[in-house]
TrEMBL record:
Gene: LOC106157060
List of residues binding ATP: K58, R168
Catalytic activity: L-tyrosyl-[protein] + ATP = O-phospho-L-tyrosyl-[protein] + ADP + H(+)
Signal peptide: none
GO cellular component, one term: receptor complex
Upper taxonomic lineage: Eukaryota, Metazoa, Spiralia, Lophotrochozoa, Brachiopoda
Membrane topology: Single-pass membrane protein
Residue ranges constituting the Protein kinase domain according to the UniProt record: 27-304
Protein name: Tyrosine kinase receptor Cad96Ca-like
Localization (cell): Membrane
GO molecular function terms listed in the Swiss-Prot or TrEMBL record: ATP binding; metal ion binding; transmembrane receptor protein tyrosine kinase activity
Residue numbers annotated as active site: D164
Species assigned in the record: Lingula anatina
UniProt keyword annotations, A-Z: ATP-binding, Magnesium, Metal-binding, Nucleotide-binding
Major location (coarse): membrane
Glycoprotein among keywords: no
Length: 330
């Protein structure tokens, strides 16, 4: 079987190449590295004229529904339309003509941010001082937050929504650069900047804004709410949001009543205030991603100030909930 690829003009494979076709022999599958909304994800080698390159291949599942296919190709279209950015996962190619369509994306060796943060707890690789090999620092965590916000600011600039922003959908490169992934789920194409979801699938309610939970309304501002939860995940080294709440029904009731997560004891009030601004009930009162980038950059430049005491973060007790136990995406 021969697979036909079109290479994204912003891709890293060959800066001087235009759209081209690649045969099956140009792609060597190495193994399964996970699964996404629409199928399996594989690590592979994309052979080029200069050097073999590791890539991630998102393969549409065999028994995909029409909704799966629609969402898959929407992601493909979105990634074609958003110019490359250092904090957004790059699409290197795609195939629409094979029996099972797939995307070819850049491969990021450290996997998703949620797993990366949790491993930092269990492996005891944390510390407050820079310079220690293999240690996460307060500056590292701020860098993760800043990179994620920068990627989202870039996506929002082109009027796209994410709708599932969380640490599990941020990938980490070998050089610890965070990149937003799985963002091609909706385009914000109308002035009201609203998107109505009618998909009957498990929802990531712990990251969802009140208006998204109640009315299925998604905007850039609901992505900002999700970023506040992502920031909490980063500060707590990948803990499940809303500790102590194990029922989705209870969580929805608490959020509607105005409940917000408490400040982690090991982060500054300034960083917690940023989370709380993201969690404003009124969407228009929430900051923009550009605002968040500016504030996080200012914090990152305060080298002598520890915004996260990561030693205490690792000692904190949080509950990591399994998705299958609660019937929601965590």
């Amino acid at each position: 079987m021969v697979f036909t690829f079109k290479i994204h003009p912003y891709a890293e494979v060959n800066a001087n190449s235009s759209a081209r076709e690649l045969s099956e022999s140009d792609l060597r599958i190495l193994g399964n590295i996970g699964h996404g909304h629409f199928g399996e994800v594989y690590k592979a080698v994309l052979k080029t004229t200069d050097a073999d390159k590791f890539v991630a291949v998102k393969l549409l599942k065999e028994k995909s529904t029409e909704v799966d296919k629609k969402e898959f190709f929407r992601e493909l279209e979105t990634m074609q339309l958003v110019p490359q950015h250092e904090n957004v996962v790059a699409m290197l190619g795609y195939c629409k003509t094979a029996a099972r369509a797939f995307l070819v994306l850049e491969y990021l060796g450290n996997g998703n941010l949620k797993t990366y943060l949790r491993k930092s707890r269990s492996n005891n690789i944390y510390g407050n001082l820079h310079g220690g090999s293999g240690k996460l620092t307060s500056q590292d965590l701020l860098s993760f937050a800043l990179g994620s916000a920068s990627g989202m600011a870039h996506i929002a600039k082109y009027k796209f929504l994410h709708r599932d922003l969380a640490a599990r959908n941020i990938l980490v490169s070998d050089t610890m650069v965070c990149k937003v992934s799985d963002f091609g789920l909706a385009r914000d194409v109308i002035d009201s900047r609203e998107y109505l979801s009618r998909m009957e699938t498990p929802l990531p309610i712990r990251w969802m804004a009140p208006e998204s939970i109640s009315d299925s309304v998604y905007t850039t501002k609901s992505d900002v709410w999700s970023f506040g939860v992502l920031l909490w995940e980063i500060v707590t080294l990948g803990a499940t949001p809303y500790p102590g709440i194990t029922s989705g029904r209870e969580l929805i009731r608490e959020i509607r009543s105005g409940y917000r997560m408490e400040k982690p004891q090991h982060c500054t009030q300034e960083l917690y205030n940023m989370m709380m601004m993201c969690w404003e009930e009124e969407p228009t009162e929430r900051p923009t991603f550009d605002n968040l980038v500016t504030s996080l950059r200012d914090m990152a430049n305060e080298e002598m100030k520890l915004h996260v005491d990561v030693d205490r973060a690792a000692e904190a007790i949080y509950c990591d909930i399994d998705s299958q136990l609660v019937g929601e995406i965590v």
